[in-house]
Amino acid sequence: MSSLFTPCQLGPVTLRNRFIRSAAFENMCHNNTPSQELHDYHVSVAHGGVGMTTVAYCAVDLSGVSFDGQLYVREEALPGLKKLTDAIHAEGAKAGIQLGHCGNMPLFYPCHCMPVSASNGFNLYSPTIHRRLRVDEIKQLVKKFGEAVDFCREAGFDCVEIHAGHAYLLSQFISRRTNHRHDEYGGSFENRVRFLNEVLDEVMKHAGNDMAVVVKTNMWDACRGGSDIEEGLRVAREILKHHVHGIVLSGGTVSASPMRILGGAMPIKTLAHYMPMKSFWWLKAALLCGGGALMIPTVPFKELYFMEQAKLFQKELKDELGDTKLIYVGGVQSGDNCQTIMDEGFELFQIAHVLIKDPDFVNHVQANPHYHAGCGRSNYCVGRMYTLDMKCHECVERDGEKIPACLKKEIAHLEANAKKSMAENKQD
Q1: Is 168 a catalytic residue?
Q2: What is the pLDDT of residues 334-389, one digit of tens each?
Q3: In angstroms, rounded to a whole number, what is the distance separating the alpha carbons of residues 80 and 283?
Q4: Which range has the worst mean pLDDT, 67-71, 115-119, 293-297?
Q5: 3-state secondary structure of 127
Q6: ω before 404 within 30° of 0 (cis)?
Q7: Count of CB atoms within 10 A of residue 395's CB?
Q8: How many alpha carbons lie under 13 Å from residue 83 in its C-beta half-sphere?
Q9: Which one of the listed residues 168, 185, 305, 328 is annotated catalytic?
Q10: Per-residue pLDDT reduced to its tens digit, 117-170
């Protein structure tokens, strides 16, 4: 048996294999409540063989919600989440959930308040004006992260993943690009990671001996003024001080370098097509008038696109890890990719794109170690998930939904480019 399919310990939780469904945003929690669609998707992934599936993105407070289809911690969500975790467990998988706060990303209407961040400013990505969090508000949010862990335990989750990357709130405090404070939460590195350290202290206290804790962090921000690799290593070392059970090694920011997170190109026509004119007319117009390529630059796709940086982190942190596992994420397309990750010394890894098209990916790899999911990396799923739901274009058409001819043309073009890029990288 391949080591891919041997059990692995993640803190107090034993996973049946090394595959974790990454916390990719589903947009399946209509009116901020778990839907049958969310339930069916995660159960299908569990049935498909993963060791753990991770529900995304649950805000610890309403102020951290970016979309109506996003969860936040509240009693009304408990019954649906408990039903979901019971069903995941019945399939033999563990259930994880990502906790975080979007910070300056939301518009007013989803979070029902002025968006907050480390500092006052304007977020062009939303776009929206945001205000600086007061110290007492920071302390309240720290407490809410701890309470959120208790909420997740009650809902039946085995693991919480704290999102400290991608330019969401915790990352907004860490980065000099977004943190311009002059108090104990700004300026020096020690001050900029204070909020993160306080959150992790609280999370670990509430996690106790029965909840696994994973932290998603940026190896680097991949944008001007953001954190570089050196600072990313310093952040990882701060995280390790809390004896968390796993660290997910990611990179990029949703506001300035989103395709570093995802790889490839954003399907601009698809993104604009699914945006409702009433809510996003300004962004839709900008995208369709040729601004999309400037706003969201392409990053040529290659398989395992974070491997170089992840191996560096592995090398630099090897003597400090203890029982903490470094979890690889990024660009998994095949069983061969999965085995490469294991051969490079990563005991666990996260996958997302391939499970959107093929929830049975893990079972297919177990049957055929060289199985390739055939994900074309057009990122159509990303283009629609912010306003509709997360779905592969092949699944959409299979379910009888019509895709306009102009979008089909874009998909074909982007998949051809991704295929060419992957072939060139393999030659190198």
Answers
A1: yes
A2: 999 999 999 999 999 999 999 999 999 999 999 999 999 999 999 999 999 888 89
A3: 34
A4: 293-297
A5: coil
A6: no
A7: 16
A8: 13
A9: 168
A10: 999 988 766 677 899 999 999 999 999 999 999 999 999 999 999 999 999 999
- The ranges assigned to domains in the chain are 3-268+297-376
CA distances from 317 to 9, 10, 234, 242, 312 (A): 19, 18, 10, 14, 8
Nearest to 219, CA basis, from 169, 257, 191: 257
* Single-letter residue type at 380: Y
Mean pLDDT of the chain: 94
Do residues 23 and 161 make contact, with C-beta atoms less than 8 angstroms apart?
A: yes
3-268+297-376 has CATH 3.20.20.70 classification: yes
pLDDT at 5: 98
119-154 per-residue burial string, b: 16 or more CB within 10 A, e: under 16: bebebebbebebebbeeeebeebbebbbebbebbbe
Tokens of 386: 């912010």
Output the six-digit token pair for 53: 């599936």
**pLDDT of 279 higher than 70:** no
